[in-house]
Specification:
This protein is mainly alpha-helical. Helix content is 80%, strand content 0%.
């Protein structure tokens, strides 16, 4: 499907990915990482097709997309932290950041700590309010970056895997993962345990 014919952000991102490759994907993910409601999945689909043709590397795309998303997240965090409530009240509604959403996310942070950031990344309804609320609440920057990195690394990997697999290489993906499955599970357990420990530690503080 020619996403360029759709117009809007979908067409723009399609053009960026096709014309500029890695740089286009990086730019798109930075913008989406800010919390803007834009279809960053489009560049991932293009990347999946290009990976099947040997024109892109899964690892490189994953690292670039993760970096772009995290940088965008830090930008959104900065808006909340430095811009303050006045800026959010003035422009927040355009992004779906209302007092109701911010209060809801604040209660999630009180109960679950930084793990809220990971969940919000996968369930996008509260994602933008979560980014802004972390800044408004002056969440520690190192903690925010830590959780943001876990969230974005897992999310981008998931989307790229789907894009690549549904481009006709699902068997190759499975064969690639099989020999490393035990290590992947072990790493996931350590990451989850580390995230949980960090959450408990910061909630207690």
């Amino acid at each position: 499907m020619d996403f360029g014919a759709l117009g809007g952000w979908a067409g723009i991102f399609y053009g960026w990915a096709v014309k500029y490759g890695y740089a286009g994907i990086f730019a798109a993910t930075v913008l989406e990482g800010l919390g803007l409601p834009i279809p960053v999945e489009i560049p991932f689909v293009v990347a999946g097709l290009l990976m099947t043709q040997g024109k892109m590397s899964f690892l490189v795309v994953w690292m670039i997309a993760t970096t772009g998303e995290v940088l965008g997240n830090l930008g959104g965090y900065w808006v909340g932290c430095r811009g303050g409530r006045a800026l959010v009240d003035r422009y927040g509604r355009r992004l779906g950041v209302t007092d109701k959403e911010l209060s809801k996310v604040a209660s999630y942070f009180d109960r679950y700590g930084g793990a809220t950031i990971i969940v919000a990344r996968w369930f996008g309804i509260i994602r933008t309010p979560t980014i802004i609320a972390a800044g408004l609440g002056k969440m520690r920057l190192d903690a925010y970056t830590f959780y943001s990195l876990i969230a974005e690394a897992s999310w981008t990997a998931g989307w790229l895997w789907l894009s690549y697999a549904f481009s006709g290489h699902y068997e190759a993906v499975i064969n690639l993962i099989k020999p490393h499955l035990a290590w992947a599970i072990t790493l996931a357990v350590f990451v989850i345990a580390g995230a949980w420990w960090w959450t408990i530690r910061n909630v207690r503080r």
